[in-house]
Amino acid sequence: MKNLIFAMAALCLILSSCQKDEAILNPTGSETTSVQLDNIPLIANPHNVSDYALNPEDAEDEKISKQLLQIGLVARGLFNNNAYNELMINEAKKNSNNCVSIEKFIESAQGNSANKNEADFEDLAELVRNADFTYQPQEEGEAVQQYTPAFFVVNAKNADATKRPLIALGTSVDDELSGMDQFTDYIVAWYANGDGSFEEILINEETAMNTTHPIYILDNAQFASAQPSKSNSKLETFEQGELKGANSSTMQVIDRYKIAHRYDGSKRSEYSYKLEYWMDGNPSAGGNRTLIKDIHKNDINDYFYNDVDIWQLNHVTVTGLSMATFEYDWYASNKCVTTPGDGANAEIDCRMKYSHEYYQRVYFDVEQNWFINYVKGAIAIKKG
User: Fold this and answer.
1) pLDDT by 10s per residue, the chain, length 384
2) Residue 20, exposed/middle/buried by CB under 10 A (0-12, 13-18, 19+)?
3) pTM
4) 333: Cα within 13 Å, side-chain hemisphere
5) Strand runs (DSSP E) across 12-126, as ranges?
6) Residue 199 has what DSSP assignment?
7) What angle do CA 127, 129, 135 make, to 5 degrees?
8) For helices 59-75 and 118-129, angle between their N-to-C axes, nearest 10 degrees
9) Axis-axis angle for helices 85-93, 102-109 (nearest 10)
């Protein structure tokens, strides 16, 4: 009898523990437990997801964000299990931007013998067919951009196809809403419960890159066919600089900088750079994205003077560096930025929601001691 009582007590304890692990952390409530996704706590979305698609400062962005949300609310119904993971992950890895066009996904997945979601596919296909993914930048002289509705498999390298995926909206939450100040650069994601319902949660870049659950972000993608081709002509850069004679230093340093625009809807802009270096007249990739500074919205047009090391040009055949500074959006796929180079242009892939959200596009010659570029703010580079 004592053994029976002990066993029942142990069972109650186990059930209680399981229920606690399945609770959702609510940033505006008193709940303190959390559901676990690969041992990473998730956070319940405390606001209406449609609030994050609004952008009174940019009607074109609002148009695309609202369509991504509509598509996401239909598409999530297709991913209540892992049936399409292998297809999605393999297809994403074929593309340099880790994206799968939704149209292509529909074509491939509808032929899957396990497909039992014909109505969802038809609804999704109609949304994509009628979507308007053109974007007209507000800046004078910027051309109309054309994007493709797509799934961005942000963690394609380490995604486990056997696990249930998350579907996410490719726009950041509004961190100026009540209770949201600690969630800058988070996005909304949906996770299927298995009973036809979904948990609506907030995730950030750290969560996305550490989990092995596949994460499919609704994205306005730019595929290779839509990217500008390489040009042999010099790009107009509006830069001011001079050669000052011999300087034996091989270290390039950002001496000071500022940004004159805010592309990010959050309180802070992740002002970043990516490089390509030139050897024997050809550009080569110069490493990953590097953060220069998180710039608060109140600091737009203010100079910062902390030195940032860029690159040490210690290879005898290196003639210079092409660099793009830009607004980094972790939830967005690569967009191509055409940048001046050594006798030709370089094309640098930057993680931005839209392809015009760069700040400066510069080329630094190894023979040059310093220059200043005054586009969309300013950046000064010198030999260290």
Assistant:
1) 444 444 444 444 434 333 333 444 455 443 333 445 676 677 999 999 999 999 999 999 999 999 999 999 999 999 988 999 999 999 999 999 999 999 999 999 987 655 566 778 999 999 999 999 999 998 877 889 999 999 999 999 999 999 999 999 999 999 999 999 999 999 999 998 878 889 999 999 999 999 999 999 999 999 975 444 333 333 444 444 454 444 556 678 898 999 998 888 788 899 999 999 898 888 888 878 999 999 999 999 999 998 888 876 666 678 888 999 999 999 999 999 999 888 889 999 999 999 999 999 988 887 777 778 888 999 988 877
2) exposed
3) 0.86
4) 30
5) 36-37, 40-41, 43-44, 99-101
6) E
7) 90
8) 170
9) 130
Residue 139 identity (one-letter amino acid): E
Query: Angle 156-98-79 (CA atoms, 0-180°, nearest 5)?
Result: 60
User: Angle at Cα 94 formed by Cα 99 and Cα 97, nearest 5°?
Assistant: 35
CA 296 – CA 307 distance, rounded (Å): 18
- C-alpha 175/C-alpha 169 separation (Å) is 15
Amino acid type, 343: G
Dihedral of the alpha carbons of 286, 151, 292, 378, in degrees to the nearest 10: 90
Tokens standing for residue 56: 């009174």
Tell me the domains of the chain and their CATH numbers.
22-225 (no CATH), 227-383 (2.60.40)
Strand 166-172 and strand 215-221: pairing?
Answer: parallel
How far, in Å, CA of 84 to CA of 82, rounded? 6
- Rounded to whole angstroms, how far apart are CA atoms 81 and 83? 6
Question: What whole-number distance in Å separates Cα of residue 333 and Cα of residue 185?
Answer: 15
β-pairing, 345-351 vs 334-340, is antiparallel
